[in-house]
Amino acid sequence: MVKICTDSCVDINKEQLEKYNIHVIPLCVVLNNKECLDGVNINPNDIFEYVEKTKQLPKTSARSVEDFKDFFGHLLENGDEVIYTGISSKLSSTYNNACKAKEELGNENLYIVDSKSLSSGIGLLVLYAAKLAENGLNAQEICSKLEKQANFNQASFVVDKLDYLYKGGRCSAIARFGANLLKIKPRLELVDGKIENTGKYLGQFKIVIKKYIDDMLKKHNKIKKDLCFITHTCQDKDFVNDIVEYVKSKNIFDEVVSSVAGATISCHCGENTLGILYLLED
Asked: Taking residues 21-30, what's their average pLDDT?
């Protein structure tokens, strides 16, 4: 049997995790000097309330090598093959710790793949791997396909305000002030495993999002049509539903799913962030 596992940056729905029996190791968020586990005892609203009250940004951290050894050990104990893919190696030490755990365990049934992505971009790869496993492929065959697909994974977001990026040291005070003053909404895109600013939009967040959606769907002409995620940190459910319906109206995807970003991702982007994520044909 092939087991698929990931970390809590995966940002797909609980129903999807359960349907494909995907195992998740939660990452850490430090709040009030207390280490919390993403999705276990902390959620995005806890993050937003804490920042609003303290004006401080919680810190996030990877799980230790020992944590990964315990996590993988339980999955491997019945002789099953295990594939792990989590947040991009260029965004977190999580990948390196997983690789060190594999080395120390010395188990040939454990495979580690760099997603080169984050959030539901990881989720798309995890679901892809799980479906391959359902079709009877072994771990080595799945990893070969997964490593190729990781290079054809479209993940991008538009951020309403740069406050969280500023607090996290990812933009300057001047850039933050200017963007908020001029209502500039940056488009952040995963490029070769790193987050890059690939565009910007001027105006109200809810107005520019459809233009962003149009731009991203026009950018690629070899889109895998089976699944698309609209992943967000928005409180306005009607707005999110409207965007989901807008994407559905394009008649590109077989399924368009709304997903709420978890605590780890929310720590870095803040409220009112929304992205469209899908796989590309290789």
From this structure: 96
What pLDDT shows up at residue 184? Answer: 78
User: Sorting pLDDT into bands at 50, 70 and 90, what band is 181?
Assistant: very low
Confidence band of 57 (pLDDT split at 50, 70, 90): confident
Copy the structure tokens of residue 242: 């409207």
CATH classification for the domain delimited by 2-27+62-149, as one of 2.40.50.40, 3.40.50.2000, 3.40.50.10170, 2.60.120.10:
3.40.50.10170
Alpha-carbon distances, residue 158 vs 83, 121, 208, 235, 249 (angstroms)? 31, 15, 9, 15, 21
Would you call 43 helix, strand, or coil by DSSP?
A: coil
The structural domains of the chain, with segments of one domain joined by +, span 2-27+62-149, 153-280
Q: What is the pLDDT of residues 120-138, one digit of tens each?
A: 999 999 999 999 999 999 9
Mean pLDDT, the chain, rounded, equals 91
CATH of the structural domain 153-280, one choice from 3.30.1180.10, 3.10.20.90, 3.40.50.720, 1.20.120.10: 3.30.1180.10
Tell me the β-bridge partners of 279. 153
Element (H, E) at 169: none
Burial class (CB in 10 A: 0-12, 13-18, 19+), 4: buried
